[in-house]
Amino acid sequence: MKPKQYLLWMAAATAVSLSFSACRPKGAGSAVSGNAAQRTYVPPGQYDEFYTFTSGGFSGQMSVYGLPSGRLFRVIPVFSVDPEKAWGFSEETKPMLMTSHGFVPWDDLHHIESSFTDGMPDGKWIFANSNNTPRLARIDLTTYRTSEIIEIPNTGGNHCSPFTTENSEYVIAATRFSVPPDGPASDVPIDSYKENFKGHISFVSVDKETGEFDIAFQLKTPGLNFDLSSAGKGVSNGWLFISCYNSEQSHTLLEVNASQNDKDFIMAINWKKAEEYFKAGKGTKQTNVRYAHNKYDEHTHTATHEIKTEVTVLDVADFDDLAYLIPCPKSPHGADVSPTGEYIVGSGKLAALIPVFSFEKLQNAIGNSDFESERYDGIPVMKYESALHGEVEKPGLGPLHTEFDDKGNAYTSFFVSSEVVKWDIKTLEVLDRQPTYYSVGHLMVAGGNSKKPYGKYLVAYNKITKDRFLPTGPELAHSAQLFDISGDKMELLLDFPTIGEPHYAQSLPADLIKDKSLKIYDINNNNHPFKTNGEAEARVERDGNIVRVYMTTIRSHLTPDVIEGIHQGDEVYFHITNIEQDWDMPHGFAIKGAGNSELLVMPGETQTIKWVPDRVGIFPFYCTDFCSALHQEMSGYVRVSPKGSNVALTSYTGNK
Ligand code: K7E
Ligand code: CUA
């Protein structure tokens, strides 16, 4: 499309989207089938069939829902501080949010992917990306805590992430914004994009046992914007497919300038080959990078933060058989691989059809060097028709993402025409379409990115809510809509609000993970350096102006609960050990004037909060979690005296 045509197209598209969202479509309320309530109702005391891990978008967190009920179980803090759980406020968790830019307490979490064994969720970990300050996180599915965060160097915006290979060999992250590689030479004019800006794709290895991350290597590519990706599976295992936009390599007014070319690309990468080259010692060590690697230790209950300074980079242009470009219409967003791995679905945000590529054809074309005569910055470009399985005709407007069921069907979300469309992967025939309220972004079928989708449910994650819920001021709840996809026609069952903007999600069968959930931390394995071994050891110690309070909690008292001899301006560390060994028995801790948050300490765990009293007086503290009938009694006092006062440092509970 020429710029003018494009603008007209966009105007039409916007008009369509406005007309969809501005007034309530007729029959929106009655589109729900008669027994939907029964099919989503999980009676009190009964469990949901699936856990669903949902991205929280610009809240930086992840939330856990049950399906089909849509009940919210938990918000897991990942890239943003969370005062409810003291994430990023307690001394133990602060290192988790350290980066090469220092402490970064916020990010934008878009994509969630589970760890896989043989292409199926194995229930060990959930991976998540941060979009802004490029990082990857690993969440442990026994503790529902973020166990690890690694920063990604040479990257500007980590949108295209975290995509997991068939056996979680790698979690893959690609740069959204190509930028000059890190280091002093990156100070270049921005209009030198074409010469100096490069893409980087990171292969982060995952230790089979511990899950620990390590950036194995990076691939350097031409300066493209990578958007989304999927690892191959089944027949295409060993490959990676990444959608790329801005093939124009423009650096300003992308809205127009990056929409010039009729086709952008899906980059196909032979990652097994790349791994081979890397293991054979190919590539260069780049030593001017700085990236954080933060780990949470479940025995010391403490995170560590280190800065790494080295990464191995392989330039794809130096190898003939690493990367290929498949032309894909108009700024592709999703690049999704079918359960068998045979088909790759591209979703051009501005396209009015869905191209479906065939892995077999792609391989044949590579085998026959059936390429366009001109390379793109050194990378072979396939002929569109040579890789194409076929196009889904007239599917809707603005395709974004595709997921799959267990019966050979694909489901694509359409942002502009606000609908979910079901089509047959082989025949490419459209089978059904249902409206979403409104403007669906991602969609998720239970197991829909695995080798054997569980099917049954589809959730549409919508960008606009408008009239669906009671109004709450200018900002309305983001929302999810649950569809039953077990029959020929999709049936809308339920609307439920989400925490933050939901991008992607993963549904895992409850039976896969529910029995692995940790109940308590064994206090005998608590190796926290400031642990208190029982009430007899509870005490207060001073070293200069640093005061350490070794405190225990158990229903329904804190030990010690009377503390004197603290001076204004002291640095006071409350090391709280919860000596309970019962499931679901955390205690909280808060003290007047604390400038951070409360603490919430799990049974058997030690956590620390820092407090600097700013005035003289008596400061009450208390347990913040209603833990017992005498929870309100679970409290104490600190006496703060002027600097240099000779009030002796004392502490006790009960008898002085
Ligand atoms: Cu929301 Cu996956 Cu960031 Cu599409 S992206 S919608
Ligand atoms: Cu412990 Cu309330």
Tell me what you see in this structure.
There is one protein chain. The protein has 656 residues and is mainly beta. Among the domains are: 1-104 and 394-518, 7 Propeller (Methylamine Dehydrogenase, Chain H), CATH 2.130.10.10; 523-652, Sandwich (Immunoglobulin-like). 9% of the residues lie in helices and 41% in strands. It contains eight helices and 45 strands. The strands form ten sheets. It has a six-stranded antiparallel beta sheet with strand order 6-7-8-9-18-19, with no helix packed on it. A six-stranded mixed beta sheet has the order 10-11-12-13-20-17, with helices on one face. It has a six-stranded mixed beta sheet with strand order 41-40-43-44-38-45, with no helix packed on it. The radius of gyration is 27 Å and the shape is globular. The model is unreliable at 1-27 (pLDDT under 50). Sulfanyl-(tricuprio-$l^{4}-sulfanyl)copper (K7E) binds at residues 110-111, 159, 228, 333, 400-401, 441-442, 503-504.
**How confident overall, as mean pLDDT?**
94
The termini sit apart by 83 Å
- In the CATH hierarchy, what is the architecture of the domain at 1-104 and 394-518 at level 2? 7 Propeller
Uncertain segments of ≥5 residues (pLDDT<50)?
1-27
Q: Specify the overall morphology.
A: globular
* Oligomeric category: single chain
Query: Which class do the helix and strand fractions yield?
Result: mainly beta
User: Within the largest sheet, what's the order of strands?
Assistant: 6-7-8-9-18-19
Radius of gyration: 27 Å
Give the names of the bound compounds: sulfanyl-(tricuprio-$l^{4}-sulfanyl)copper, dinuclear copper ion
